[in-house]
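Trying the structure run again after the queue cleared.
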Amino acid sequence: METIPITTPDQPITYFGVAYVFSQADNQRFQHIVDLLHSNLSDLAYLAPSPYRHITIAGITSVSETRADKPLLDFMHLHKQEIEDVLDEASSTTPRFTVNFTQLEVHKRAIILRAEDSQQMAGLRSKLHNLPTLNAHINQPNFVHTSIARYKQTLPIERISQITSGIEFSIRLTIDTISLVYASSSFSNAQEIMTERRLR
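Done. Tokens:
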């Protein structure tokens, strides 16, 4: 029986990468899902606060890398202009597009909301392949999703799957910006938007 690990809201998790950060209107579209999960999982999971919600487009460092601030800050300073040049090129050649969220999935690290495959998102990610990374083997997301909850308890993953089964939705978002974002903990603080570019 597979179990899921405990995550605390202030657990040190370094996230640095390019993402679409949810707008206030986006968060309102997801509110009924958030309310439903809260009523069913409040004792078992932490829900992502609205300022934290995003869709990762391209990672620069992943949750398992670079826990210390100084190496990351040094890297950011060294490559800032290079990163912004890649964002400029990608944003200027990518029209805004929509993604449609239709599935809730229970994974070992998080509960996610998954969108249908998007050729436009795949094309945008391909334009970001020249981004420098802290690790040559960084895991890039291969599907469109947002993490909506992490776990308070170690328990069988099947239990969470049973509780969340039957939740249906279809939520369409317009992707019209890309942002370089940084966060140093899991869900306890909003990520910092370091720079943002608007798609054409």
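The longest helix spans residues 69-92. Worth checking whether this holds up in the mutant runs.
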